[in-house]
Amino acid sequence: MKKAVVRQTGGPEVLKFIEVPDPVPGEGExxxxxxxxxxxxxxxxxxxxxxxxxxSANGFTPGSEGAGVVEKNGPGVTDVQLGDRVIVFDFNAYLxxxxxxxxxxxxxxxxxxxxxxxxxxxxxxxxxxxxxLTAYDALINHSPLPESGTVVITAxxxxxxxxxxxxxxxxxxxxxxxxxxxxxxxxxxxxxxxVVVAPDPFRLKEAIVDLVKDEGVxxxxxxxxxxxxxxxxxxxxxxxxYVIYGILSGGELKLPDNxxxxxxxxxxxxxxxNLADPKNLQAAWREVLPLIETKExxxxxxxxxxxxxxxxxxEAMENHQHWGKIVLVQGD
Length: 332
Fold this sequence. Notes:
The chain has helices at about 40-50, 120-125, 130-140, 160-170, 185-190, 200-210, 225-235, 260, 270-275, 280-295, 310-320, and strands spanning about 1-5, 15-20, 30-40, 65-75, 85-90, 105-110, 115, 150-155, 175-180, 195, 215-220, 235-245, 265-270, 300-305, 325-330. By secondary structure, it is of the alpha/beta class. Strand 11, helix 7 and strand 12 (about 235-245) form a beta-alpha-beta unit.
C-alpha cells in the first residue's frame, strides 16, 4: 500500500509517497480500505513544524479521520463485517508517526471505528467526524451554549465553525459568524447567521459592537486566540463565556482589565483530550450521529483531490478560500 509521509518540515512539497506492506490486524483490530480522508489545519501545522511533535527519518503520516470499507478483521472483532462502510477517527495519528489516514489503508482498534452515517458518500463521511464532534462536544457537553442570547463564532468558514453555527441556530440563538473575506458572506448567511467581515481584531470588535448594540455578546467560540480573543472577550456580557479551541494566530491571549468584574468564563477545549477515551468518543458519536443523518449538521465538501495530489490539497487549504472541508479521495 501507499501512504504519504513527511520526513522534514516545510511547504507542501515535503509530502512524499512511499510503499509499505499492508498491515495485518491483530486482536481487536480492523484493517480499513480508505476511500476518503478529511484534511484538518493541524495537519498543515505538523507539516510546517508548528505542532509539538518530533518527526523522525522514518517519516510522519498525517490524518486522523477517514471513511472506507472493512477489508479484514482481527481476532475478536465480530460486530463489523467485511465490506461494511465505516468511519475511522483515531487520535493516535497525532502520536504514532505511522498511523495517519493519508494512506490507502489503515489499521485501527475496533473502538476507533465509528458507525457510518446513512445517505452520505465517502467524501461526505470523511468530512464529518472531526468537525461535528469538536463542535458538539465543546458546545453541548463541555461548555454548554446559553439558553438564550447572542453567540459569536469566529473563523466560521471552516468545518468546525460551520458545525458550530448549525448547533447554535438549532438552539434558537442569535448567531454572528465572522470572516476576513467578503466572498464568504453569502455562505455564512445561508446557515442563518448574521455576518461580520473584518480584516483585523480591532475592526472585528467594532463591527460586532455596532451590530449587537446594547444587547452585547453572551458566548464566543474561537479557534484564533491572540489579539482576536483579547478584543472579543472585552465585549462579553456579564457571566459570558469564551471558548478557545485553537491557536491559529499563534499569539498570546491577554485578558482585558475589566474581565474580573464581568465574571466571565474562559474555557479551553481540545478534542484530543476530551474524546481520547474511546468510550467517550463512542458516546459523543451516538449523540451527534442522528444530527448528521438528518443533515441538521451538514459539512459541505468544498473540493476533493486524489490522494496522490495531497500537496495540491494542502496548498488549496492554505489559501483560505474554501467553504467547509477539503477531502482526499481514492478508488471508486
